[in-house]
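Q: I have 476 residues here and want to know how they pack in 3D. Can you give me a structure?
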Amino acid sequence: MEKNAPDVLPVILGGDIGAYSLARAFHEAYGIVPLVLSQADCHLCGDSSILANRVVPHLERREVLLAALTETAECFADRTLLPLGCGDWYVRLIVEMRAQLEGAFIIPYIDEDLLNRLTDKDRFYELCASTGVPTPRTVVVDLADPQFDPAVLPLPFPFPVVAKPASSAAYHYADFPEKQKVFFLHDGAELAAALKAVRGSSYGGKFLIQEMIPGDDTQMRILTTYSDQTGKVRFAAFGQTLLEDMRPMGVGNPLAIVSRVDEAVVAEATRLLEAVGYTGFANFDIKVDPRDGSHVFFEINTRLGRSNYYVTAAGYNVARWLVDDLVEGRGLPAGLTVARTTDSLYTVVPKAILMDYIRDDDLRREVRGLYALGHDADPLDYEAERSLRRRLYPLVFAARQWRTCRAALAAKRAREMRGEVSFGCGVTPHPARAGHGPAPDGSPDCGQEASAPSADGAPASAAFKGTDDCWAGAIL
């Protein structure tokens, strides 16, 4: 830890790339060794020397998470604790348990009422409409309505369409064989079948059916913002997605991003966030329509996204905004800081795969140039890691990405040869869903959940892997 580092312990919930990236940001900025609580043991975090990883089976359950955080607070009573959720469900649980946690933790999230208004996508679109933020045409259906018939659903736009849950946090706990994060549907029969499958699961909320905006992954955009405790947007970093995750439960997760600047998008997001008094980090998914260059906002994440390292790699370490505003109470830079870096490439995919996917000649030339200049950044490849096994992990991960992406690209191009409508590359079966349960931490990065409920059906305890009496000594 640096000599003048803040006395804060980030408590990161999750075990995926986003969790590791956030831990790395704190380590890069201050030399801090964060505590990462994950549901499963994995090499990504378990073998890391820049963080302390504790495995808590069923961490996504309210009672388990509360017990784990309570024990954390007892072990580190002399430290300032900052919980950071790397999944919508973790953020929601932190917000819902605010009364039990805020005496021991700094809660970096909005209140529950605003969380509901923003993360229920149908309500989010209403807020967008009231603030002049563009969104795709959408039909909302209530799966809990006994009168609703999935087979009879008139739409004001043609097929193909996109269907997705209004609440991703609630949908995370749904368990059914046909589950996908987002459904891409060719006709009414497929739509009816998908809604019937969802309706038969534990998810009883609303579902959104949207018009399909054409274009491949390179038409996607990402925006990360930070709003101070007065509700003023103080920072914004924009980027162009080059390639997204190709697994059904990974749709929407960027694998490669090049930094961009778009003042119009930043202005729209600022107008929305300041209208509702938002505080903390937010992350927006946006798509540009190649037919006319217009754009639409798909959703907001009330946290840093899985690909948050694209911001840090561009020269704007995300940890510093949290520490300066919430921990040390420093004045943030005056006005709105917009990231102006346009020569930074975030990537967690092999170069050959990325270059093979990009079809636009100018974009290919630009990306090839960024590689040549050494301006590419892989958050998993960190020179501060001391373990040989962890130093080799990026190579293992790249090999896995190679297999997944090659198969998906081949399937995509076969569909195109047959003249079928292509929805990006998301056709590869999700390797962590053999039993159809939620993947650990929302990602297959940690492998399959290994724990099970106790014999009496009670949740597994919140015991920590490799603990001493308090395991506080693991944090440097």
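Q: Anything worth noting?
A: The CA atoms of residues 66 and 97 lie 8 Å apart. Confidence is low (pLDDT under 50) at residues 425-469.
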